Amino acid sequence: MRYEGPKSFAHRPHMSVDIAGIKLKNPVMTAAGTFGYGQEFVPLVDLNRLGAIITKGISLKPMKGNPPPRIVETVGGMINSIGLQNVGAQAFIRDKLPFFSQFKTPVIANIFGETIREFGELAKRLDDIPGIAGLEVNISCPNVAKGGVLFGADPKMAHHVVRTVKRSTHLPIIVKLSPNVTDITLIAKSVEEAGGDAISLINTLMAMAVDPQSRRPLLNNIIGGLSGPAVKPVALRLVWQAVNAVKIPVIGIGGIMTPEDALEFIIVGARAVQVGTANFVNPIACVEIIGGIEAYLTKHGFRHISELVGSLRTP
Amino acid sequence: MSFSPSEARERGGPYLVYGTLLENPQVAPSYHKMRIRTPIPYGDIEPGQFLMVRVSEEPFPLLRRPFSIHSLSDLGAKDGSDIEILYKVVGKGTNLMATWKGGKRLDILAPLGKGFSLPTEMGTQSLVAGGIGVAGLFALSQRMRAHGHTCLVFIGAKTKEHVLCVDEFKGLGADVYVATEDGGMGFRGMIPDMVTSFLHDRPNPSGFFACGPVDMLKAVAEIAKSRSIPCQVSLESRMACGLGACLGCVIKTKGKLPLRSKEAPHQGWDVPYKRVCKEGPVFDSEEVDWGGI
């Protein structure tokens, strides 16, 4: 019914990647907040096919999120202001995490704190919990009053958060960066110096939309974060700049809908990618992208995905 | 690749399938009715549930569009079901859809959400539809008829051109009452006023089932509450995934405990925001925080 990559096993290229010690069978992960805690997609997607699952962001205590309306579609994308509604660490560990044990796919917990101390406490809370392969530290949410993008826009603050999390956990930490900064290389370097094991980018671009008839904002929160194909060229540029600034692995995120989109990020140097908004439009997007990357490697004679990473032919 | 219909069924649905558009006629100015042949078993779909259709392979319009399942026909266990959706042409997505012709292959995600709970005791049920809200109530009326309930159907619209499905409901043996804001057809005024005046000298129905604009739903919920009649409402919201993952479509309900209060232990803590796509689109009217919508 839908294309899923080459059928023959004889000449299949190697798709596995290692991100800070987390072994992924392929470089495609689900982006935080776009795949819930996995359960919702079970009737539609074989979760074992995915490179990794990044969970919906969790905080130390439950958060109720922002009042609706929380989303609006714009040209080539959508703006959201969910506001990190989540069940909190305790319910996550008790009710959500056990579900993943039936799958072989690594689970990376996306974490969020309103203060640096909260980041540390949360990292500590998740440190010795079985079933978590790593943490993705969200210092880039544009939709919360405290914390969020404030940490991600200031290299010193970013450094503090990362150092605190690093001291609180044995798990590898991926730091998710915001595009809403003047110079991404400063933040990326600061995170690397503080001990971040990898960086992922981009989170959403701060955005808004207005209904001219009513002269009202289309989101209750007025401002939200733009995602989807519209942000891809901006994301690609930021990933390229980050790749050139740090040695730690970079994970590319932003508007990836197709295998070709993912390949662009890998070619500029991303060792892995995350697929977000595409999951809403096409719940099997990740699997189709994995198949497409594999077909590309086969067609172009690459034996291993790593040969393609950073292979951009610059003028 | 997605799972086959039988695998999706084992996993509890929904189904991500291709359906075939059979017909897509305009049924009134700016309203179309689309009939789609799907491999989804009839028995797996509840009235009040919805489907999402991918409108374009291009990046705009991007998101799938949600539609109430308007009517259902059983094609047998092996062949699935025909699903109809009734939609109003309002934006980019529905304008594109209105151009679609029979034979087109449609990328469908269905059935989604929680539908209406059918009353267990026999009785007279009141269905209240405002505007395009009739779209969400016809399948319910079909199912109620099959279960032997008597249906009263109240339809409200701006003008008589916007009154839909009267003959279809009558064809199911329902008594249909129409209200138009300009009085061009039936009762002159708003639909809750018609319901109130209708019930003035009649016995209470056993239940209310309402679909339409929020103000109307709120008014019907008040009528139901004042008469101690259970009331189910079908709500609308902007949606992205339809699967419960994005938390974009929430509405405010009467949550149990305040957020982060010192008295409230985290166990039993209840988020006041519920997903229209998962806990809904049908809610008990008493559960909804009408002031927060």
Protein model, in words:
The complex is a heterodimer of chains A (315) and B (293). With 315 residues, chain A is an alpha/beta fold. Chain A is built from 9 helices and 16 strands. In chain A, strand 5 (71-74) and strand 6 form a beta hairpin. Chain B has 293 residues and is an alpha/beta fold. In chain B, the strands form 3 sheets. In chain B, strands 1, 2, 3, 4, 5, 6, 7 and 8 form an 8-stranded antiparallel β-sheet that branches. A 7-stranded mixed β-sheet of chain B has the order 12-11-10-9-13-14-17, with helices on both faces. In chain B, helix 4 (166-171) links the parallel strand 10 and strand 11. Chain B is globular. Chain B starts with a helix and ends in a 9-residue tail after the last strand. Mean pLDDT of chain B is 91; it is low at 257-268. At the A-B interface, strand 5, strand 6, helix 1 and helix 8 of A face strand 1 and strand 15 of B.
Short synopsis of the structure:
The complex is a heterodimer of chains A (315) and B (293). Chain A has 315 residues and is of the alpha/beta class.
Secondary-structure topology with pairs:
The complex is a heterodimer of chains A (315) and B (293).
Chain A: E1 17-19, E2 22-24, E3 28-30, E4 52-54, E5 71-74, E6 77-80, H1 88-96, E7 107-111, H2 116-127, E8 134-138, H3 149-152, H4 155-168, E9 173-176, H5 184-193, E10 198-201, E11 205-207, E12 210-211, E13 216-217, E14 224-227, H6 232-243, E15 250-253, H7 259-267, E16 272-275, H8 278-281, H9 285-299
Parallel strand pairs in A: 3-4, 3-16, 4-7, 7-8, 8-9, 9-10, 10-15, 15-16
Antiparallel strand pairs in A: 1-2, 5-6, 6-14, 11-14, 12-13
Helix pairs in contact in A: 2-4, 4-5, 7-9
Chain B: H1 5-10, E1 15-23, E2 26-28, E3 31-38, E4 50-53, E5 65-68, E6 71-74, E7 81-88, H2 92-97, E8 105-112, E9 124-130, H3 138-146, E10 150-157, H4 166-171, E11 175-180, E12 187-188, H5 191-199, E13 207-211, H6 214-226, E14 231-234, E15 250-252, E16 273-275, E17 282-284
Parallel strand pairs in B: 9-10, 9-13, 10-11, 11-12, 13-14
Antiparallel strand pairs in B: 1-3, 1-8, 2-3, 3-7, 4-5, 4-8, 6-7, 14-17, 15-16
